[in-house]
């Protein structure tokens, strides 16, 4: 770090304190060359990766879009808002810890499907039918069997 007054790069840290909220560090510094003092702040900067769509276009990650997709699949399902919040937080954590600057929309879709499968099997089928572009009943049957613990859709009586 350079002194903002004389541009000298020999700086001493005189005092370090954590902010009241605990999300930043305040450092009081002194330049060895000009003896002037100044304050710096260190804050966590979390940058969500860009989402690369199937057509190759890139868009900023949007928590609102993610939540809207989950809520659409979960519409009229008995899932608490707190559970949806936890699912969004879980997906965001996985995106952040991926360490990538860009992720495919397919990766995000798979994370959403995993959370929906855990939250509500009907919502999972709803989302999967659109996401995977089901074209016939056999694809629905396969998805239902996947989440239905081996139960058949139309058991023969």
From TrEMBL:
Zinc finger unnamed: from-to: 3-34
Biological process per Gene Ontology, one example term: negative regulation of DNA-templated transcription
InterPro entries in UniProt: ATP-cone_dom, NrdR-like_N, RNR_NrdR-like
Protein's organism: Pseudoduganella guangdongensis
Cofactor note: Binds 1 zinc ion.
The keyword Signal is assigned to this record: no
Phylogenetic classification of the source organism: Bacteria, Pseudomonadati, Pseudomonadota, Betaproteobacteria, Burkholderiales
Listed name of the protein: Transcriptional repressor NrdR
Alphabetic keyword roster: ATP-binding, DNA-binding, Metal-binding, Nucleotide-binding, Repressor, Transcription, Transcription regulation, Zinc, Zinc-finger
Ranges of residues in domain ATP-cone: 49-139
């Amino acid at each position: 770090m350079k002194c903002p007054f004389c541009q000298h790069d020999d700086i001493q840290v005189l005092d370090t304190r954590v902010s009241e909220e605990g999300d930043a560090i305040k450092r009081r510094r002194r330049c060895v060359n000009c003896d002037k003092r100044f304050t710096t702040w260190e804050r966590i900067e979390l940058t969500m990766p860009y989402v690369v769509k199937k057509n190759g276009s890139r868009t900023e990650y949007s928590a609102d879009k993610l939540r809207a997709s989950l809520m659409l699949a979960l519409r009229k399902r008995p899932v608490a808002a707190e559970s949806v919040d936890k699912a969004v937080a879980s997906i965001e954590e996985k995106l952040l810890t991926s360490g990538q600057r860009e992720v495919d929309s397919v990766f995000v879709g798979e994370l959403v499907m995993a959370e929906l499968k855990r939250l509500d099997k009907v919502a999972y089928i709803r989302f999967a039918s659109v996401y995977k572009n089901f074209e016939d009943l056999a694809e629905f049957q396969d998805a239902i069997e996947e989440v239905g613990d081996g139960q058949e859709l139309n058991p023969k009586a």
